[in-house]
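chain below, 161 aa
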Amino acid sequence: METSPAGEEPTSWDDLYSINLMPSELFLKFRKEIQGLRVGVNLEFYNAPRNDFQTKLVFKPLSPDRRWKFVYEPIHQDVRILSKKIPVTKFLNLQVGVGHNFQLNAIGWKWKLTTCLGGDGVSRIRNKTTLGLCPGVDFRFGWRADYILPEITGYSYLIAA
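prediction:
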């Protein structure tokens, strides 16, 4: 174990690591199936990295091989068509889309690589859980666990005989 700047050694293993578990998002989703489409209204509340609120209207085809979804955000006046998440590896997904922002009068495309194993230079595990409250209404909450593991160092010597 490495000593602290004051020359003291940690008193226990609990002093060597840190885990911070926090809720990161709460979604309330209302869905209705209309003529081969799933129409949804999402109320999204974000806790981290900053407090935020978004409303989204989402349209998806009902077919099991759906490859796209249409998203409209009335607060930001943003319209997007997004692809289904495409698995690249077991823990890595790719999503691409095109969109238009009416406030900025701008058209653009975006792509996103996502994983549940962290990002932003932070050791993090992210997960989402969905509870069906009643037919057509889902409650989803996301959580994240930021963790810092101890630095483990050591020496090895080769002794020549």
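Residues 94 and 113 are 5 Å apart (CA to CA). The beta strands are 18-34, 37-46, 52-61, 68-73, 78-83, 86-89, 92-101, 106-114, 124-134, 137-148.
thats it, cya
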